[in-house]
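Researcher: Re-running this chain for the archive, since the previous output was lost when a drive failed. Same request as before.
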Amino acid sequence: MSLKQIIYASALSKDEDDSCLPRILATAVANNARQGVSGMLLYINRSFLQVLEGDEAILDPLYEKIRQDPRHTRPMTLQIAPIETRQFPDWSMGLAHVSADELDRIGRKNDFFKQGHCLTELDESLARKILGEFRSGLWRTHVT
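Model: Regenerated structure tokens:
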């Protein structure tokens, strides 16, 4: 088995609202657990930052399916890379609602968040910083 990690950002389609999140999460948890996929999903201001980890043969078609999902717009691939170990091995999928203030703290008062940019405009460095601080438990966010 060849482990891979995909990090991407996307925006919620204008045809959707926050009420679709429980359905997205329930489907992801069930499918990911069955297929051996782990990861997490951050949601803020109608945009997503997601990490997917698993076997390359599973992740490639899964990511393509996500990219084609009409609930997402502007998918932006931040990183696709082979990995030795999973960063989120115990999560079939965790969902955290994050406030702009929390992201601003992580961005160290970076104007990116103050100006209301969408997560699809993140660069890989800031995305990794956000994910690292989330994983280390520095946020007190609601994780489902």
